[in-house]
Specification:
The protein has six helices and seven strands; from the N terminus they run E-H-E-H-E-E-H-E-E-H-E-H-H. With 207 residues, it is α/β, with parallel strands linked by helices.
């Protein structure tokens, strides 16, 4: 079956390639306005992205995903500009928060299936010069919460509990399990991403 990733994110492309050797990429714009219900938002936006791409390509199995960072006071999507990125980093630095990534699979003639990966992340305490330098690099501007767990040259994360790949933008064990629901055989990600061996979402997934 032909798989299409409904995302322009280079990180999601890199991650999906670890379990699906051949897929296409298409995107369609959706309204990404957030509410005060981050888990529901992550699921809703993942479905919306998958459905939008399926409308343009009805013969595909479409993977849609959306990542939201949330703490006790608000949800954080992608920052609009450098100033908002710096504000997000100040809010999150040194404190725990949730990273929620919704994954939806859409196929013509069937209702989309969706699941949400949840990871607790504790960020390092970042001082103003570190925040300014990180924002100036441009890397925070296309990321929910204005940071990337994989940016090891500018350490942002102290510790996490949950799916590392979910924080990056696509929880692989969960995505693999959902693809199986539609008969798409996806590889285990262990060969390319050894870190996935310790993922708590691995439990119960076909090896």
């Amino acid at each position: 079956m032909r798989v299409v990733l409904g995302s322009a994110s280079p990180r999601r492309r890199e991650l999906l390639a670890a379990i699906v050797p051949s897929f296409e990429v298409r995107t369609a714009g959706v309204d990404e306005t957030l509410t005060d219900r981050p888990r529901e938002d992550a699921a809703r936006l993942a479905i919306a992205k998958a459905r939008a791409v399926l409308e343009a390509d009805p013969s595909a199995v479409v993977v849609g995903a959306d990542t939201i960072v949330a703490d006790a006071t608000r949800s954080y999507g992608k920052p609009r500009d450098a100033a908002e990125a710096a504000e997000m980093l100040r809010d999150l630095a040194g404190r725990p928060h949730l990273v929620l990534t919704g994954v939806a699979i859409a196929v013509e003639g069937w209702s989309p299936i969706v699941a949400v990966s949840e990871t607790v992340v504790e960020m390092v305490a970042m001082d103003e010069p570190t925040i300014a330098a990180y924002v100036a690099s441009g890397r925070p501007l296309d990321k929910a919460g204005a940071y990337a767990i994989q940016d090891e040259d500018v350490p942002t994360v102290e510790r996490w509990h949950g799916c590392y790949c979910g924080v990056m933008g696509l929880p692989l064990w969960l995505t693999r399990e959902l693809l199986y629901e539609y008969g798409v055989e996806a590889h285990a990600p262990l060969e390319r991403l050894p870190r996935c061996a310790m993922c708590p979402e691995r439990t119960g997934v076909i090896e």
